[in-house]
Write a structure and sequence with these properties.
This protein is an alpha/beta fold. The protein has a domain of about 325 residues: Rossmann fold, CATH 3.40.50.2000. The chain is about 50% helix and about 15% strand. The chain has a nine-stranded mixed beta sheet with strand order 7-10-11-4-1-12-13-17-18, sandwiched between helices. A hairpin with a 2-residue loop joins strand 5 and strand 6. The chain is globular. The mean pLDDT is about 95. The chain binds ligand 26V. The site of ligand 26V has 24 residues, from helix 6. Keywords: Allosteric enzyme, Carbohydrate metabolism, Cytoplasm, Glycosyltransferase, Phosphoprotein, Pyridoxal phosphate, Transferase. Its cofactor is pyridoxal 5'-phosphate. It is found in: Cytoplasm. It is an enzyme of class 2 (transferase).
Length: about 800
């Protein structure tokens, strides 16, 4: 049905006021008429809902305005397709960005409600695993801030990332239920729903003009229903939409089946349909290889493309201009099937010929790679794709034929290089490589740090890079300084504003002015006082959750991130064991008191990662309770790491552990958050650490360990780690203690295999980096003993962080990949 043209000057309601009085009366009104509660009986959750609805109204005013502006100007729209958006809480972010935090606080106070309590009541939207999902959330906020008309597309999982609890030091996974109290931020858009097909077959259809075209006849259909959340940028300048899809059966009650007497069958079928969006896959590297995951990927890709094409047709009536008006960014390969799906829509539905469709597709898509870990590179069995998505599989074959043809034409590729280029992996059972598909269907392929992008060219995509030079580029990650400095660290924000004025909040490059205050003792003392207050607050969290008392005057040494062998929490805990034994054997020495804070989730099926959590907890139990340690070393594992816990931990960190095996961490973004909050980094030359070193200078960061080149060299030579262990008495002793059961008397063999791996292959270079790491930790101790030096370094970290703002990253995507203008660019 043709859509009515938009009337862009239709009336709008009057803008909502931002004063305390207006907010107060509206909160009461929302509580009464939208939540349906009398204030005398209202519960905290009712107040939270009323407050969110009140704040939301202010955002909606700007949302309408932003969307009208996009229709009016017909600027290019950006679509960010991501299977994960790790948003966390939205209310504080929204209030802070539109500048109503204090009036809302005052309004609630008049009802005897504490804003801080409400903020802590809001559940985290944990629709992601880790770095990739959090990056998508930072990007959404930055795209609104730099005024890019952008839409995020993803899945509205009913259950986000599992809740982690500890049972005797082991991780247990419990379901997460963020929607339990409803979600006042979202708008269900029943009118924006699309049918998504699965299975079936492909049929030739005769056209009236005598040509034939192919048509996919799916065996099964689902409905994708849109849920929209407004994402507001800094100072409320622009509001964009995060559109998450929810799966529903086409016929919600399957009445025919039900009435025919198959009651259970009818209900089962309808819940099977909804299952597609029920839970987030909790693995962030090992491919589940499961059909449901592929269904999720196609489901949200197809819904998003149908929506994009519909909106484009509504505005322009013709798909020929698609790549002029639309840029689609693929967040890793998870939405890579979109490339085949767009080709199908263009060719089979809109009758476009192959060549222009392929050209348009490449001009529309960009692909971001987030990992080189071989086990995290997605591939799908050819048979599964043929069964689930028969037409898309035909298109993939046709794309592959085109690519291989171009490679042969160019010449100079060996058979093994051709095999490496191919979209089909022929080693063993045949599989489609989604990375290769995403690469060939995009005009831009980017890595997420300078080192990572270089490694993409040298390793994973070396042959595709030769065939299609200039496509690989770098976009070093960033984080939003609103959430990761202004909101999570109000004390530091106030201090900086007092010193250099508040303008840095609108232009983070002004933070560099702090450099000249870095050696000022008064400023250092103030900086230290802010850090100490944050540490007192974290110490309270540690006491409340774990019953462990830690001193805010000790160094807070923090490693928080997903638990993974390449991130080397094991290296950190082995060094803690070595330090423990030093403290015991040399009680006379002047040891620097440290609190080692760990937090992070392990993929449920990743045994070694779960064992590392148990080891940290086992070591904690012994060290924290040994009187000989005299409180000089504490080890703490905070359960259920999530965005909100990160916001409490990071402002309290003195030392940031970024110690991955060089070449394995694509970028890291936690590293940037710690830097912003004035922690000093101990790290390897990996991911974005390399660029942090450039920004902050070698005097303000502690670097150690093998470089990526050296790691590769040692692996190629299959060099044995034994000599590193033999050469280091401290390491040998710590390993022997762990593997002989000193920390696991109830099960002395618990860590034998884990530690055995270090003697055997040591793939992650834990043994071979140990001495360098331990020496770097002693350098850190020395710095801590010179507080003037320490705080000058800490201040310089904050001073030089602005390049790691996701505003900078997004502006580069906009200019260099999407071709859209940005504010201040
Ligand atoms: C891969 C897979 C494989 C199939 C099973 C499910 C699944 C889920 C996620 C992933 C991708 C993991 C890649 C990832 O999170 N990379 C991280 O991206 C961050 C943002 O660019 C970056 O800072 C981290 O260094 C990188 O590890």
């Amino acid at each position: 049905m043709p859509q009515k043209p938009l009337v862009l000057d239709a009336p709008v309601p009057e803008r909502r006021a931002l004063t305390t009085e207006a907010l107060q009366s509206e909160i009461l009104e929302k509580l009464t008429y939208s939540v349906g509660k009398d204030p005398i009986v209202a519960r905290p959750h009712d107040w939270l809902k009323a407050t969110i609805l009140t704040v939301r109204d202010r955002i909606i005013d700007q949302w309408m305005e932003s969307s009208r502006e996009t229709w009016r100007t017909s600027n290019k729209r950006v679509y960010y397709l991501s299977l994960e958006f790790l948003i966390g809480r939205l209310m504080r972010d929204a209030m802070s960005n539109i500048g109503v935090m204090e009036p809302v606080r005052a309004a609630l106070k008049n009802f005897n409600v504490d804003l801080g309590d409400l903020i802590n009541l809001e559940p985290d939207a944990a629709l992601g695993n880790g770095g990739l999902g959090r990056l998508a959330a930072c990007f959404m906020e930055s795209m609104a801030t730099v005024n890019i008309p952008a839409y995020g597309y993803g899945i509205r999982y009913v259950h986000g990332l599992f809740r982690q609890e500890m049972s005797e030091g082991w991780q247990v996974e419990l379901p997460e239920d963020w929607l339990a109290h409803g979600n006042p931020w979202e708008f269900e858009r029943r009118e924006s729903s699309y049918e998504i097909g699965f299975g079936g077959h492909v049929e030739p259809v005769q056209e009236p003009d005598g040509t034939t075209r192919l048509e996919w006849r799916p065996a099964e259909h689902l409905l994708a229903v849109a849920f929209d959340t407004p994402i507001v940028g800094w100072r409320g300048k622009r509001v964009n939409t995060l559109r998450l899809w929810s799966a529903q059966p086409i016929d919600p009650i399957l009445l025919d089946k039900f009435n025919a007497g198959d009651h259970i069958g009818a209900l089962e079928e309808s819940s099977r349909a909804a299952a597609v969006t029920r839970v987030l896959y909790p693995a962030d590297s090992t491919p589940s290889g499961q059909e449901l995951r592929l269904r999720q990927e196609f489901f949200f890709s197809s819904a998003s493309l149908q929506d994009i094409v519909r909106r484009h047709m509504q505005a322009y009536g013709d798909l020929g201009s698609l790549s002029d008006k639309v840029a689609i960014q693929l967040n890793d390969t998870h939405p890579a099937i979109s490339i085949a799906e767009l080709m199908r829509i263009l060719i089979d539905i809109h009758g476009m010929a192959w060549a222009p469709a392929w050209k348009l597709t490449k001009a529309t898509f960009g692909y971001t790679n987030h990992t080189l870990l071989p086990e995290a590179l997605e591939t799908w069995p050819v048979g599964l794709l043929e069964r689930m998505l028969p037409r898309q599989m035909q298109i993939i074959y046709a794309i592959n034929a085109e690519v291989l043809g171009e490679a042969r034409k160019m010449g100079g590729f060996t058979d093994s290089q051709i095999a490496n280029l191919s979209l089909i992996d022929e080693h063993g059972s045949r599989r489609v490589r989604m990375g290769q598909l995403a690469f060939v269907g995009s005009h831009s392929i980017n890595g997420v740090s300078a080192l990572h992008s270089e490694l993409l060219k040298k390793t994973l995509f070396s042959d595709l890079d030769r065939l299609y030079p200039e496509r690989i580029n770098n976009k070093t990650n960033g984080v939003t300084p609103r959430r990761w400095l202004l909101q999570c660290n109000p004390g530091l924000t106030r201090l900086i504003s007092e010193r250099i004025g508040p303008d840095f909040q609108d232009d983070f490059s002004l933070l560099a002015q702090l450099d000249k205050h870095a050696d000022d003792p008064t400023f250092q003392d103030q900086f230290k006082a802010v850090k100490r207050a944050n540490k007192v607050a974290l110490a309270q969290v540690i006491k409340d959750r774990l019953g462990i008392v830690v001193s805010p005057d000790a160094m807070f040494d923090v490693q928080v991130k997903r638990i993974h062998e390449y991130k080397r929490q094991l290296l950190n805990v082995i060094e803690a064991v070595a330090q423990y034994s030093m403290i015991r054997s040399h009680p006379e020495k002047d040891w620097v008191p440290r609190v080692k804070v760990f937090a992070g989730k392990a993929a449920p099926g990743y045994w070694n990662a779960k064992l590392i959590i148990k080891l940290i907890n086992d070591v904690a139990k012994v060290v924290n309770n040994d009187p000989a340690v005299r409180g000089l070393l504490k080890v703490v594992f905070l359960p259920n790491y999530n965005v909100s816990l990160a916001e409490q931990i990071i402002p309290a960190a003195d030392l940031s552990e970024q110690i991955s095996t060089a070449g394995m961490e694509a970028s890291g973004t936690g590293n940037m958050k710690f830097m912003a909050n004035g922690a000093i980094t101990i790290g390897t030359l990996d991911g974005a650490n390399v660029e942090m070193l450039e920004q902050v200078g070698p005097d303000n960061m502690v670097i150690f360990g093998l470089t990526a080149d050296k790691v590769a060299e040692k692996r190629n030579r299959s060099e044995v780690p034994r000599s590193a262990i033999d050469a280091s008495p401290a390491l040998r002793q710590a390993l022997e203690a762990i593997s002989s059961g000193v920390f696991s008397p109830d099960d002395p063999n618990r860590y034998r295999d884990l530690i055995g791996g270090l003697y055997d292959h040591d793939w992650f270079m834990v043994a071979r980096d140990f001495d360098a790491y331990a020496a770097a930790q002693r350098d850190i101790d020395e710095l801590w003993n010179k507080p003037r030096k320490w705080y000058s370094m800490a201040i310089r970290n904050t001073a030089h962080v602005s390049w790691f703002s996701s505003d900078r990253t997004i502006s580069q995507y906009a200019k260099e990949i999407w071709g859209v203008p940005v504010v201040g660019g």
